[in-house]
Amino acid sequence: MTDDPDGTVQGPRDAAANALGALALVVSDEMTRAVVAAADQASTTDAAALVSLAQFLDGATLDRVHRVLGVTPSGAVRLVDRLERNGLVRRDAGPDGRSRAVRLTDEGRGRARDAQAARAAYLSSLTAALSAEEVDVLRGLIGTVMTGVVAHKDGGAWTCRLCDLTACRRPQGECPALNAARQTYGVAEHAE
Amino acid sequence: MTDDPDGTVQGPRDAAANALGALALVVSDEMTRAVVAAADQASTTDAAALVSLAQFLDGATLDRVHRVLGVTPSGAVRLVDRLERNGLVRRDAGPDGRSRAVRLTDEGRGRARDAQAARAAYLSSLTAALSAEEVDVLRGLIGTVMTGVVAHKDGGAWTCRLCDLTACRRPQGECPALNAARQTYGVAEHAE
DNA sequence: CGCTATATGTGACTGAGTCACATGTCCCCA
DNA sequence: TGGGGACATGTGACTCAGTCACATATAGCG
Question: What PROSITE patterns has UniProt attached to this entry (chains A, B) (predicted)?
Fold first, then answer.
């Protein structure tokens, strides 16, 4: 690892790191674009809210929504206002008198499903060029890297906010991000 | 590849795709956070502008800035206004009377360097757990996947807007994203 | 010379998100 | 048992990035 005059670094290790950064940026851009379009939402947060609700957050309180999505409590209120205004979510009575349960309407659930399908389709198109062996290798490497990511991460939105939780739990055990995040955000077990 | 009742898909192929999506999302989140903090900018676009300017866009017109960053022309004007107000760029005379050249000040260049260093440090920490062989394998797989990404991508911001271009060009040839993007956005060759 | 395309800039607006603060509920502890 | 702090939600005022519609000015072709 030597520095060149600009202060940039070189070598295969850094080339890999740089490529990882580039790939992460585009994939996340495009994936988000696909999800937002499919869910017919204006903001990425709204789309993420729908997907999260559909997967493991349905019936959760506003408080949980704010933690998972990494916005302020008031931000969560506005967000749910928005979704409610569009008929995607309802505010039901919560587990106690202070809190309310945010629940998807059928319309909202449909939008979430569309979003998840769009995400899965986009991501599948990316791995389509890989052989079965390469897919396994990639999965292993991603697992290793993800462990490091999780170790560094201190706050912010939930790592798995757009994930397909059934896909990451099967067929080979659990995802490190899921485990780490679950306790941080106190997310309930997904109904099997 | 079979569908389960929810419409979600299963199998190792889809697990890998899902993991790729999850990894891309966090890495891009965290990387952006690191870059924005290091450049001391409020918005991610501003930080991306600084980094892009430093790498290959210095002296470019506002028009090019708008194309590379994927904002509207007026958005680019506001963006450059902001950076100028903070003493990070200057508007010099452009190649013709209509256009202006956006040029980094020393202060701006310093901020950009800080941002790039923060990005590199974060990404390196992620690959640190991998062996040299694993790094090579990962690099190869990322290259393959990136080719697919580039093929699907139709518009939006420049894929490499945060990249370290010297890292992706060496030591093994060029990055597919760089090649594809270069012609789309008409970005000038980076000064070697 | 006039016409259209191009580059930048401006005014009015939207929309997401924040902060500071208000209200209502919960629950522990004296 | 009731008082007080912690907690959940909600509201008002504001910020800030970004857009659209439009204005201005230059370029360059016929």
Answer: HTH_MARR_2
The bases of strand D with some atom under 7 A from any protein CB are: 7-12, 16-22, 25-28
In this prediction the pTM is: 0.90
Residue A12 C-alpha, separation from nearest chain B C-alpha, in angstroms = 7
pLDDT score at B10: 63
Q: Does residue A170 carry a pLDDT above 70?
A: no
Q: Tell me the C-alpha distance between B112 and B128, whole Å.
A: 24
* CATH code assigned to A23-128: 1.10.10.10
Mark yes or no for CB contact B120/A8 under 8 Å. Answer: yes
For the CA of A71 and the C1' of D14, the distance in angstroms is 17
| C-alpha–C-alpha distance, residues B82 and B74, integer Å | 12
The verdict on a CB contact (< 8 Å) between B8 and A167 is: yes
Q: Domain extents for chain A?
A: 23-128, 130-192
Question: From the CA of A180, how many Å to the C1' of D5?
Answer: 31
Strand D reaches within 7 A of the A77 CB: yes
pLDDT tens readout for residues A11-33: 778 899 999 999 999 999 999 99
